[in-house]
Amino acid sequence: MRLNCSSLIVVTIFWAFYMENSWGKAPRIGGGGRAGAKFGIGRLYSARIPVTIQHSDPQSATYYQHKDGAKIVKSSHFDFEYMLGRKITFFCMAQGIPRPEITWFKDGIELYNHKYFQVHEWTEGNDTIKSKMEIDPATQKDAGFYECQANNQYAIDYRAFRTDYAMLTY
Predict the structure, then answer these.
(1) In DSSP terms, which residues pair with 60 in a beta bridge?
(2) Which fold does the domain 26-166 belong to in CATH?
(3) Quick check: 37 pLDDT over 50?
(4) How far apart are CA 72 and CA 132, in angstroms?
(5) Which of 34, 87, 96, 161: CA 20 to 30 A from 67?
(6) DSSP 3-state helix, strand, coil percentages of the chain (rounded to 5)?
(7) What would the pLDDT profile of 100-153 be if each residue is shown by its tens digit?
(8) Strand ranges inside the chain, DSSP E
């Protein structure tokens, strides 16, 4: 892997920021995230900056940047906190020609419909698909990393979501 000067500077700045903000802090236990102060103590997650990797092969660049390739154009927020027993909902909207298919994953494993997990999909025009994933009621086991993956014959695109539960403290 070759790094140019600007990439090396970005990596160095990120590493310095990460080390300054993560050492010497005790991990937090329990559910939570954004609303940790309101609902209880949350887990500590390390921050990650999206990495843009240059395509080393021209065929890869052609594949991932194809004008008709699947592209996710709208999606839910990255970080989601839910209450136990309530509904978790994620949304993805993708475009491409031919119309992409959307597949949902949790912690890298494909999800299938069952009693508490459902996917609703609908189309718009010849090139757009919308997909909504719901879990109702949510349990502690539903915390984790979710992905929606859109693909067609020209490209694959995905979005990741992180969930954690909130606990009420009185």
Answers:
(1) none
(2) Immunoglobulin-like (2.60.40)
(3) no
(4) 13
(5) 161
(6) 20, 35, 45
(7) 999 999 999 999 877 889 999 999 999 999 999 999 999 999 999 999 999 999
(8) 71-75, 79-83, 88-95, 101-106, 109-110, 117-124, 128-135, 144-151, 156-166
